Amino acid sequence: MDTRRERMITTKWGEFMIIVMQEKATPQDVEDVVNRVKKFGYTPKLMEGEFRTVIAALGDGRDKAQLQALESLHHVESVMPILKPYKLCSREVRRENTVIDVNGVKIGGNTLVVMAGPCSVEGLDQLMQTAKACKAAGAQILRGGAFKPRTSPYSFQGMEEEGLKLLRTVSDETGMPIVTEVMNPREVDLVHQYTDIMQIGARNVQNFSLLKEVGRLTKPILLKRGLSTTIEEWLMSAEYILSEGNNKVILCERGIRTFEKATRNTLDLSAVPVAKDLTHLPVIVDPSHGVGYWQWVASMSKAAVAAGADGLMIEVHWKPEEAFSDGPQSLKPEKFAALMVELKKVAAAVGREL
Crossing angle for the helix pair 271-278 and 231-243, nearest 10 degrees? Predict the structure, then answer.
């Protein structure tokens, strides 16, 4: 990159350096570097990997030379600038994949994770029956909406707090962690009480107030790509969350809006390898919203695994013909069970487990 371009990015984003610690660096070594970073007027952010710790230093560019001189310390491997607009989620900061542990379920590792369940919580019987069927088929996480963002104000909007309570009840019964959507900053504390993963939906991917709010939490955040969001904009939204201190972000491709009308959205599977090349964060795919019709969910699920996705989010309903929302794209339990068998074969073919 030429000097003029580098100066332009530095001016816009501030100076962002990463300090890669030696593999055998001790906690005291890390603390020493953190204190030096603070002394130079930079804000340090720790990213602990399996083998190395990386310290990100964010500042205005002053004392940059002193930061770079930290490379002379025996416990520092390298110091380098990050020029991409998304900093903390960039592969430049962390070469190894981030693995997020959700109550023992690890997202981002070699084992694929399947989140399954109804679009919306409609009642205890509906949710319990569906959850048990999903778990029996091999799903590890239960999905279900208590707050539903709908295009029409007259459509079912969800059971809200009562729905959250039902999700918690079913989770306690089945042992499945749950993921559910939070729609605005006022509901963050409420949803946080009940769920294991907080979902930011496609319509809120650039709701920066909401992103900052969930960024102050320690629970994992599932960030869906927006209907017309570029991959860079998607990663910048993730950066909002990471910059507040929460590095447990899961990216979810769920289809984008194009001129095509045969499907509900256009599932952009190319986003999976592209995003995984650009970021260390886990990337999963939601084929249900991507196509909008159950007939094509299985094909796109298998294609997503082949493309390198770390997991899937699939809508399953024990009686989709009676569903309050998204019935046409929901799989019946028996079809979901059959799909899980097929997914194991695809996973094995690409060196993954399920």
Answer: 40
